[in-house]
Design brief:
The chain has about 350 residues and is an alpha+beta fold. The chain has helices at about 1-30, 40-45, 85-100, 175-180, 185-195, 270-280, 285-290, and strands at about 30-35, 50-55, 60-80, 100-115, 120-130, 135, 150-160, 165-170, 200, 205-215, 225-235, 240-255, 295-310, 315-330, 335-350. The radius of gyration is 23 Å and the shape is elongated.
Length: about 350
């Protein structure tokens, strides 16, 4: 049970990483421009009810996007088969000590700068992001969890305007295992989104973007993530396109095989809960700890929201998202843990003057 409750910290890290990836993709790529038979006819561009999806960053831009994520998380334990009445009572005490539900809040500031393109069409992209420490409290309003440090994200890339391709990318300043971000994941994201490049949408029409990736998990082998984003154009007015956004997501990590590379458990996000849980089950022998299989995790969720994009500079002006995720964690000899997470994300962008 202790391992299950300590998985709360891992789950928060996964959720935070996933939210960061969603916001990062929104700030880095999603954009659109008016689709017209002749690009030079400005009047037609203003009057059209159709957009052409363009996800490639423009040269000579300087954008800032600020976002806030809040999440309420609840969890419950299922007694395992053969559990004694004394063990059940201790499990209930541990859950009461956790004082669920927990509330979390985090802020993210992201700035993207691109240089002018040279004669060959090459230009540089610089993305700098700063995630403030996540604030966490229990149902009693008490602060819980270990101190969290500020996370810095740094991405430098070389792009080509003529070919609309990323020629190189470097990621630094973030712990990919704990924050769910890596150079490989970003490249997967870029590849999926460029599949919609040039797609035309009229008001009322939709386009879907599927994304399959392996999300890094601390002390694990990775979690398979399948995500589908659906964008529906609802309005095009004064150079701003408004989209309804829908997201479906599923996650799966098979913990049937032991992870011999590391035996350390993730740090608990709730010391009180972990301490109470430690009294509810006997600790395994140190010699057997390395052979313990990792927990298996399965999750599914869906979300919806709204996004406004300014066509001229491909800037996301506003975004609001609500998402619900349900997760089940199982480990041999442990009670199964069911978790529910309700997230709200809000972001706003602006074009910074040079």
């Amino acid at each position: 049970m202790s391992q299950h409750l300590k998985s709360t910290g891992l789950t928060c890290g996964l959720t935070r990483g996933l939210a960061a990836l969603l916001l990062l993709s929104a700030g880095l790529l999603p954009a659109s421009q008016a689709a017209t038979p002749k690009a030079k006819v400005a009047a037609a561009a203003a009057a059209t009810d159709e957009v052409e999806l363009r996800f490639f960053p423009l040269p000579q831009q300087r954008h800032q996007i600020r976002s806030v994520m809040t999440m309420k998380m609840d969890m419950r334990m299922e007694p395992r088969e053969g559990m004694s009445e004394d063990e059940r009572a201790k499990m209930e005490q541990a859950m009461q000590a956790a004082k669920m539900p927990m509330t979390m809040r985090s802020e993210f500031d992201q700035r993207m700068t691109t240089t002018a393109a040279d004669k060959e069409g090459n230009f540089q992209l610089q993305l700098r992001g700063k995630s403030l420490p996540m604030e966490m409290s229990n149902a009693a309003g008490e602060r819980v969890g270990p101190a969290k440090s500020t996370i810095d994200i740094k991405i430098d890339a070389k792009l080509n305007q003529k070919t609309s391709r990323f020629q190189s990318m470097q990621l630094a300043g973030t712990d990919s295992a704990s924050n769910g971000l890596s150079e490989g994941l970003l490249k997967q994201l870029l590849t999926s989104m460029t599949g919609l490049e040039g797609r035309r949408l009229k008001v009322g029409e939709s386009a879907e973007m599927p994304l399959d990736m392996a999300l890094p998990v601390p002390n694990g082998r990775g979690m398979g993530v399948n995500m589908v984003g659906r964008y529906t154009l609802v309005k095009l007015e004064n150079g701003v396109a408004d989209f309804d956004v829908g997201v479906r997501i599923s996650m799966d990590m098979d913990g049937s095989k032991p992870d011999t590379a590391s035996s350390a458990e993730p740090a608990s996000s709730s010391p009180a809960a972990a301490s109470a849980a430690d009294t509810a089950s006997s600790a395994p022998a140190a010699a057997d700890a390395k052979n313990q299989p990792m927990p298996s995790m399965k999750a599914s969720g869906q979300g919806k929201g709204r996004m406004s994009l300014r066509l001229a500079d491909r800037l996301m002006l506003t975004q609001q998202m609500e998402m619900t995720v349900n997760m089940r964690i199982e480990a041999a000899g442990k009670p199964a843990m069911n978790m529910s997470m309700d997230m709200q994300m809000e972001a706003s962008g602006k074009n910074l003057k040079r």
